[in-house]
Amino acid sequence: MKFAKILSVLVSVAFVATMVGCGPAATPVPPTTAPALTSGGYVIPVAKCAPNCKYSDMTVGFIQTGSESGWRAANTSSFKETATQQGVTLKFYDAQNKIENQVSAFHQFNQDPSVNVIVLAALDVTGYDDVLAEAKANGKIVILEDRRIDAAPTTYYTYIGSDFITEGHKSAAALCDLLKNSAKKNVVEISGAVGASAAIDRAKGFREKMGDCGMTITQSQTGNWGVPESKAVMAAFLKQSTDIQAVFAHNDEEAIGAIQAIEEAGLTPGKDIFVLGLDATADGFKYLISGELSADVECNPLLAPQVYEAALKAMNGDATLPTWVPSQEGQFFSAQGPDALKAILATRKY
Ligand code: GYE
């Protein structure tokens, strides 16, 4: 009898203890806010001002490639002008086409407490892993503009830029059409800077479609996005062989360099050799209108409004944006005629 009495006392003490709890009352744990995760698995470093952050709360560290082309100048103006219009604080860095400069600027911005968003126009598809990891550790929002990189989508909020492979496809289709009455279809390629996703993907896209009409790339070399270097490259191609029916140039400056070399060789661009460029800048239009350039595949440099809008979404913890926002682009042909092309040019900002 005595043992049963002791046991019942112990049981009741244990129950009371759990109800009342021996120790002091547990502090209520606030409900955990699930990290804002994009579809690419990127954990958004949501800003303190969320969900009501404004452009005036945004300080962007912008890492530009350099100033290698008309396209690049338009891209830079887009970021500077839109920042002023929106009231965004912009810290602009020109890497002068050196990747080591981009990496050190990225590190500087990671260490800069005033910077909450870092925007990168990547010179190369690799080489940023360390600074991307540092940005994550330092709570910096990272957005890629213009060019993609070979990095996991867990390392950046989104990429806003062109579908360069499709631009390559369009280029092949345009040259196929221009060469439809030509028995021979030998094409020389003046490619963009080695390592740049724009050059890699345009070349890939073109090669995916050139077989549609039996085109062959007989010579290929980089013109580093510039006129003088591309002129020298085209002159060397012509010295090697004049059995060339078309030029696939990765931007307008390279196309203009090729045109100059063709004319200096006593040949007529648009008649003896068809030249295609990419970007469709004002300079490109000038040569379309003269007929020296036969086709120009557009690449949109005016990306700043979309990039700042995406950055503000990220600051406010909005995880709905896809990991890639491709640009909408067209293409233009000298066959459209000078009047029509002049009318279009008059409506364009670059
Ligand atoms: O085609 C060229 C510039 O990345 C799309 O870079 C850009 C390219 C553009 O230098 O003109």
Task: Please give a structural write-up.
- It is a single chain.
- With 350 residues, the chain is an alpha/beta fold.
- The protein is built from eleven helices and twelve strands.
- The strands form two sheets. The chain has a six-stranded parallel sheet, with helices on both faces. The chain has a six-stranded mixed sheet with strand order 7-6-8-9-10-12, sandwiched between helices.
- Strand 6, helix 6 (197-209) and strand 7 form a beta-alpha-beta unit.
- Helix 7 (227-240) packs across helix 8 (252-264).
- Mean pLDDT is 93; it is low at 19-23.
- It binds beta-D-fucofuranose.
- Residues 68-69, 71-72, 146-147, 162, 198, 225, 251, 278-279, 299 line the site of beta-D-fucofuranose.
Number of strands: 12
**Distance N to C terminus:** 99 Å
Query: What is the count of DSSP helices, taking H or I runs of 4+ residues?
Result: 11
Low confidence ranges: 19-23
Gross morphology: elongated
What would you call the structural class? alpha/beta
What small molecules are bound in this structure?
A: beta-D-fucofuranose
How are strands sequenced across the largest beta sheet?
A: 2-1-3-4-5-11
Which percent range describes the beta-strand content?
Answer: 15-25%
The amount of helix comes to 40-55%
What Rg is obtained from the alpha carbons, in whole angstroms?
Answer: 28 Å
Mean pLDDT: 93
Major β-sheet annotation = 6 strands, parallel
Q: List the secondary-structure elements in sequence, H or E.
A: HEHEHEHEEHEHEHEHEHEHEEH
Features:
alpha/beta; binds beta-D-fucofuranose; single chain; 350 residues; six-stranded parallel β-sheet; six-stranded mixed β-sheet
